[in-house]
User: What shape does this take?
Amino acid sequence: MPDKILHTLVNATGYFGSGAEVKADEQSNVFSALGIDWQMLLFQVIGFSVLVFVMAKYIYPIFMKVVDERQAKIEESVKAADEAKQMADKAEADVQKVLTKARREASDIVSTAKLEASNAISAAEEKAKSRAEKIVASGHEQIKKDIQVAKQALHNETLELIAQATESIAKVKLDKDSDAVLVNDAVKGAAK
Amino acid sequence: MFAAIDLHIDIKTAPMFHIGEFAVTNAMLTGTVSLIVFIAIFGYVAKMLKTGKYNRFVGLVQWAFEGMLSQIDSVIPNKKIARSIAPLALTIFFYVLISYWMSVLPGLDSIKYDGNPVLRSIAADMNFTFALAFISLIATQFYAIRAHGGIGNLKRYFRNPFKDFIGAFEGILELIGEISRYSALSLRLFGNCFAGEVLLLIMSVLTGYFAVMTLPVFMAFELFIGFIQAYVFFVLTIIFTSLATESHGPHPEHSAVKSSKKMVAAE
Assistant: This one.
């Protein structure tokens, strides 16, 4: 069977043998043996050219319009994306700049606040200290006065007691002057 | 089992009927079906795009179109030339793809009219592949003339041998290459499509009833090859156009060598 297939194939080409299907005059003509017919070739050329013309005129422009529109959209989108990216980068840079400035200002404010707070604390401390000193001085003054008053009161009371005591001992009614002399003498004697 | 099989493999397309003296072949019939499918798909998608309605199929076709268009834009730096050559290159790709895939349709050799198979991909007709190559060649030359001018374009092939002997030789080689590369392009497409049809036919014969299991594998393979061939034809067309329109600079002889190297690499 393979021999039969081979025989059929060889006959079909028309080059290698004298097949029943190949006419004798075609064997001498390569183009004819290959099935090339000038009339047919011209018909195919014209037919295909007309097909190309029709497609180029009526069909492909619709496709190309869609492709171009899509391409334009893509390019526009890419451009917009680039612009947006640039703007985002710029905004980010601006934000960074503002942030840096804000941080610096905040740092300045904090340091100023710290300084002011420190000054205020120092001033308050100073004020409190001076007030405390004033209070202490005033206290001391008051204590001195109180002591003085107490001393005077004690002195007077002592004199009174001595007068009473003397009076009760001497049974003599002493006037104020003699009483005072006696008391003073007594005090001096006691002090000695 | 095989003795009863009568394989009908003919490198030529078979005439189905005649209009006057003009023979309408099986490849032309299949090509017409491909044309209807091609126009129907693109017409439908264009209509949907125009009305702003989308579905998965529209998205798929649009995606394929956009992919191919971006290929053209990436190969040809001049956008004006790229958009001018795009209709030809895109039509080549999509029409060849659909036509090639027609060869995978069931009933390849079994549906016959007047003893000849009715189904045959138009890409397996050398008239069609040569016509494509011829149109590509004309288009490339047209854009080359627009880019360099008529004389400038001729200077790519014909140089004074007394001034630049090697350059003149290279120009002749370039001229031969110009013709041979398009011939190779058309023969490659024809060879692949024809061989694919023969392969499917032989596999169906050799595997007999097991063909239901083996043929889908080969059909899938053919679909892949069809895509590759359509893409190769498409991409080489735009590469040749790009090479023909690119500026050669102050030393054309060096650029010609560079171009030749690029073309070899591309092929």
Observations:
- Chain B has one domain: 2-266.
